[in-house]
C-alpha cells in the first residue's frame, strides 16, 4: 500500500522507507483495534487480496451532524485484483461494521494523485467535506 501511495500520489513529504512505514502503521492499527476499530479482509481462493482498517469515534461530533464516525484509515487491494470489485466490497463491509458500532457516518481520506481510488469513493457515495493540508517543518 505504501509503495502504491508513493507511486501515484502527488503529496509532498511521503515516507519512502517501507519498513519504517509498516512499523508505524502496524502500531497505529493496534491502537485503533484496541479502541474498538476493525480490520476487514478480502480473500480470493484463500489468498489475501485486500483489506481495510476502520477506526471509530463514538458519540456526537463537534463539527458534523453525526452520532459516531467510523473512518476507513486504510483501504488496500493488491495490484492484480484492482478493478475486480474488491474495493467496493470492502467499502460495503466497512459500512456494515460502522452501523454496528453504531456510527452514522463513514469517512475516509484519499491522497492527491490517487485518482482511481477517488473515483471509486465518489461512485460509492463519498463526497469531499474537508481538505487536509500539511506543511513540512
Written account of the structure:
By secondary structure, the chain is an alpha+beta fold. It has a single domain (about 1-125), classed as Aminopeptidase (3-Layer(aba) Sandwich). Helices cover about 35% and strands about 25% of the residues. It has helices spanning about 1-10, 20-35, 85-100, 115-125, and strands at about 40-45, 45-60, 65-75, 105-110. A four-stranded mixed beta sheet has the order 1-2-3-4. Strand 3, helix 3 (about 85-100) and strand 4 (about 105-110) form a beta-alpha-beta unit. The longest helix has 17 residues, at about 20-35. The model has no long low-confidence stretch (mean pLDDT about 90).
Properties at a glance:
Aminopeptidase, 4-stranded mixed β-sheet, 35% helix, globular
CATH architecture: 3-Layer(aba) Sandwich
User: Spans of 5+ residues with little confidence (pLDDT < 50)?
Assistant: none
Please identify which CATH superfamily we are dealing with.
Gcn5-related N-acetyltransferase (GNAT)
Helix share, percent? 25-40%
Amino acid at each position: 500500500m505504501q509503495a502504491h501511495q508513493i507511486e501515484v500520489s502527488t503529496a509532498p513529504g511521503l515516507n519512502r522507507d517501507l519498513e519504517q512505514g509498516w512499523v508505524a502503521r502496524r502500531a497505529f492499527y493496534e491502537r485503533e483495534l484496541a479502541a474498538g476499530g476493525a480490520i476487514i479482509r478480502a480473500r480470493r481462493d484463500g489468498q489475501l487480496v485486500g483489506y481495510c482498517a476502520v477506526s471509530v469515534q463514538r458519540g456526537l461530533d463537534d463539527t458534523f451532524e453525526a452520532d459516531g464516525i467510523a473512518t476507513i484509515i486504510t483501504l488496500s487491494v493488491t495490484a492484480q485484483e484492482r478493478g475486480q470489485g474488491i474495493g467496493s466490497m470492502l467499502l460495503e463491509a466497512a459500512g456494515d461494521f460502522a452501523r454496528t458500532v453504531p456510527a452514522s457516518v463513514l469517512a475516509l481520506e484519499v491522497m492527491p494523485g490517487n485518482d482511481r481510488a477517488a473515483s471509486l469513493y465518489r461512485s460509492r457515495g463519498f463526497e469531499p467535506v474537508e481538505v487536509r493540508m500539511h506543511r513540512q517543518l
